Amino acid sequence: MSVEERTFIAVKPDAVQRGLVSKVIERFETRGYKLVGIKIIQASKELLAKHYEEHVGKSFYPKMESFMSSGPIVAMCWEGKDVVKQGRSMLGATNPCASAPGTIRGDFGIDLGRNVCHGSDSVESAKREIGLWFKDEELVNWTSNQAKWLYE
What we know:
By secondary structure, the chain is α+β, with helices and mostly antiparallel strands. The chain contains eight helices and four strands.
């Protein structure tokens, strides 16, 4: 079975510094999603301006840009059925204090400005974000042996 939907998930500098990368990966793998791209990157201000283009010029943007460029980010591309919507659900509310226990932000975050992860909010955003953070040759198309146990 071929599942085409992909999402972009970024483990932000706060979570990288706190050693939470493997915990985020574990959540997506345990759910059954397939990792097709991963890299650690120090994001440039130019990349961040493209990624957060709708926020450039807003009062909070300089602080967000400073934080996102303050340390390494683990950029990932995950694939699976309904992965964009489910990925957002797994992350929890943007404000960790409003996130339910059991979500990534609910379990690991406390402050809005240190909310552990970014996840694409739509299929269209995912395509755009994946294209910003990954070259085509950095994404691997492969077949998981688990697929027959996950999908009808």
